[in-house]
Amino acid sequence: MARESRTHLRFRIEPQLQKRLEAAQKKSGRTLTAEIAERLKQSFDIPDQSQSIASDVASEVSSELSFELSSIEGSVSEIQIQIRAILSHLGLPDPVEERKAAQRREAEARRARRAEAEKAAEQAIERIQRAKPPDASPPAETKDEDSK
Q1: Which of 11, 16, 25, 147 is most buried (most C-beta within 10 Å)?
Q2: pLDDT for 88-144, tens place per residue?
Q3: Is the pTM of this model over 0.90?
């Protein structure tokens, strides 16, 4: 079996850190070099793992919120139906339907005002055209303008 290519490093560490590494190495059953290498690898993997965990949590929270929101929307719809039934039973108008009807009336009134304004504009144009003499021609040029 071919041996992996490795680089020999020498570095200094604090005695407390060395004791902690040696304790971890004994607990894991690895050599001190293997323990240091594994911990270095893990330190580089942490950001990737954190991102993956954060993504999983966000997805799960989103799914749960979506389910809860759907449940709430269903409950609100049921309550609205019950309120409308009670209002109907009491002979009272449905406020939602009243608001929609008021909006329709407002829209119809705007259309009517627009139609009246258009009709008034057309009538004004017709009056202007009738008031204008039929043989109106542009004013004749004066001699001053001819000499220029």
Answers
A1: 25
A2: 899 898 888 889 999 999 999 999 999 999 999 999 998 888 887 666 555 566 555
A3: no
DSSP string covering 82-148, please? Answer: HHHHHHHHHTPPPHHHHHHHHHHHHHHHHHHHHHHHHHHHHHHHHHHHHHS-TT--PPPPPHHHHH-
- How many CB atoms are located within 10 Å of the residue 87 CB? 15
User: Is there a domain that residue 36 lies in?
Assistant: yes
Same domain for 66 and 31: yes
Quick one: 21 exposed, middle or buried, by C-beta within 10 A (0-12, 13-18, 19+)?
A: middle
* Inter-residue contact 32 to 24 (CB < 8 Å): no
Parent domain of 84: 13-92
Distance, in Å, from the CA atom of 114 to the CA atom of 66, rounded to the nearest integer, reads 45
138 falls within a domain: no
Determine, yes or no, domain membership for 137: no
Residues 20-72: pLDDT tens digits? 999 999 999 999 999 999 999 888 888 888 888 888 999 999 999 998 998 89
Q: Is residue 148 part of a domain?
A: no
Q: What is the dihedral of CA 129, 132, 134, 136, to 10 degrees?
A: -130
